[in-house]
Amino acid sequence: MELVKMQQKITVVICTHNRANLLLKAIHSINAAPSLSGSDISILVIANACSDDTLQKLQKLQTDSLQYPLTFEEEPTPGKSFALIRAVNLVPEGFICFIDDDHRVDKNYLTSIQNTINKSPKISMFCGPIFPDWTGLEPSWVHTQGKYKIFPEPIPCFKIGSKATLITAETPLPGGGTLIVKKELFAKIGHFSTALGPKGHNLVGGEDTDFVLRVLNAGEKILYVPDIIQYHYVDLGRLKLSYLILTSFQRTRSFTLVNYPNRSPIPLYMWRKLFNYIFSLLFSFKISKIRFYLIRIASTTGEMIGFIEGRIR
After folding, report:
1. Lower CB count within 10 Å: N or C terminus of the chain?
2. pLDDT category, 3, cuts 50, 70, 90?
């Protein structure tokens, strides 16, 4: 009974752009997840510059028998950060659980969040693991380990062991699709940066990492909870070398823009690293090595571009 009395309002927020079918799967996974008795849980979808049938499908879904009430709003300005800010401004209180439209949540997702909030009332931000939603149809090389393991990983994956852990600048940082944030924290930290983040389906990110770093720099605690589990959709069409090269370039470019926002010369060691990767590629004759070095070259190039590009905060 004590847990029920302590429950707060929880709003699950999904920002989406032209991925109606994946979005519906995400919503259905939330509605299939049980919650503690007496809970106040709702789902808010922000349709970001959508031109497909997202709005029509959401309207139809509202007429179905859903366990949790569903509302949606349009954000016409392209850019995920604009959609995130719109969502935060619409939620009056409680905790905001951000998930991506290509995720599905574990059946214990909501109860794990509720129990964590009850056990850690002084912490205003939580996160959990995200695992690739493997189907067995993916090519075997995506599971390669060892020296020639593909990094960044082809499908986003975030995990920090099997015990609850405080996030620090030295630990892996969670992505935006697993953040659970108390509404009041935004008044202290500010919103997501509109100078960062995806616009449409491009691969530029960084708005989530920037926010997490600002939270840590403000002295706030972020608790990683291994039971708050989500699964990331595996798009087989994206497991191609050309896409992985572009992903690697954009992810490291975003990382550099977050951590080094001012324009600066490219460090000398990066030129050496790029040369070594190119040299190794020229003398690679196995596909695993060729794939690895092409992706590392793209990653290093993205990092270098981030240094000279800079961004506006």
Report:
1. N
2. very low
